[in-house]
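hey so u asked for the seq, here:
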Amino acid sequence: MKILLCNVSKKYDTNTHDYVGLFYLAGALEEAGFEPLVFHGKPEHLLDEIEKNKPRAVGFSCDFDNVRVIEDLSGKIKKRWGIPVVVGGPQSIALGRDFLEKSGADYILRGEGEVSLPRLLDAVLKDEGDVDGVKGLARIQDGVFLENPPEIIEDLDALPLPAYSASLHADHAYGNLIFTGRGCPYRCAYCAPSPGKRKVRLRSIPLVLEEIKVNLKNNPGLKCLIVMDDTFTLGRERIEEFCRGMTELRKERDLVWYCECHVGRIRDFMDILPAMIDAGLIRLQIGIESGDQNVIDQYNKHVKIDDIVEFVTYAADCGLAQIATNFIVGGPAEKDGATASLIRTLIDRAPGVIDIITGFLRAYPGTEIFENPGKFNLQLHDESGRRTGDDYPFVTPVGCSQDQVMRQRQELNRVIRRSMQQKIKHRGLKEDAVRKQFEAAFKYGIRSRWFAEISANPRAYEYYYVLFLNEGQAFEESLDFSRDYPQRTFELWRAMTFSDGFPQLDGMALSPLEYELLLRCAGKRSLKKIQTELYEVFGGSYENEREFHRQLIDMLHRFDSKYWLTHFVV
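ran it, structure tokens below
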């Protein structure tokens, strides 16, 4: 009996994601005797899949951005095929009678569906069991809207593993997402309070590692795991157990991983970071949200800015490749410049490592901000969600227009970009930090904002790319003229201009000596030989060869500061 589970979006490319939640549901349906099928893609392709596969029921995963898409598709499915339509997912807690009437959907299923969905389908399609007993179910019966409290699954180890074989996308490889637990002990004012969120439940680490092994076997190209849960770094012992397992797996497979972290919790045992990095941790997501401690406290985040700065500094010093974080725009009023100041501090403390983005505040149903915006001196716009997404603010401070919030975000992004570009321009990045960004991008497909900003600076990109390929080395403070062979990081004919009658490079006019020096930096001559050749031509302008030598060293270091040269040692 085929059951089609779907995630559809007009806005996002759903083919690039795993949608592991749908596959956990598929595993539960498979264990219950159904034949699950999973579709993730554009809505215009879904109806063709239904026509082709003839499922007995369709289930949708609903989030803030695809409510209206699902509403439209559900109506078309009911009109054309008349099969049951079930809508779940994180947005289901905000759906009610109005949605059912507009969409024609039969059921809203809230909460964790691995138990409740098979029971619902047993009752509806097999006439086994009672619909009234299905936890988390909302429906209209005899003109009355009925709803039950959701299912909270206590024993996560009892659930089957994700059934990736149910995918309708034969060209998609799965397995990079993993959950080690569900729930979160924190109550941030902006975080969507989905059923089950308020109770922490953990899977056993051996079972998690077994799932990873299965994923590695089924996906030979898998190189990076993303630990999705909010609970991963709650306790030291559990992290250590996971790291021991990952260390063993990495003996036979090049595998890195990425997880989220609450600084307020891990600060008590942050000396565990080196062990996590040794076990393959490549990227760590931390929540900051604001540079104003008062706003952070209003969000109920339980973290101090000083602790964040300390943690970021320590993580960068430990050699962590990437620390990802987000700042919220459009939240409670901040002290002028507070967030911009913290952004600059973090970039100073972790240049080449801290990966900062911005986002608009989202007032998800059930959150404090949605239920009581006045408490935060906020106002909501377009509560139906018909026009808003992350590209336009849904929430603004009272007295502040949406356009003003847009401009605030643009200005913060300019602060981030200017700060990063200044670090790049003035050689404020450690070579090892940049090398790790290139490795993350080229080896594991993880492209950070630092990688993007370095790529936007052609000379810096060419320079670091040479270092990454081990085709050259960075200049040391002291040079060995007998053994060092300098080489340009670019081709002269592409970069040099003579439009004003003299050589110019990156807007800098070159003297005849500088030009001749660059010509000879092609990796074919030692510095000693280059100096001898140039002294024969230009030496007459200097008191002696020692003075000329000092001038040459100054030029080489100046060229190096502009990313023009690397060298290798013979």
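The mean pLDDT is 93. The first helix runs from residue 20 to 31.
lmk if thats what u needed
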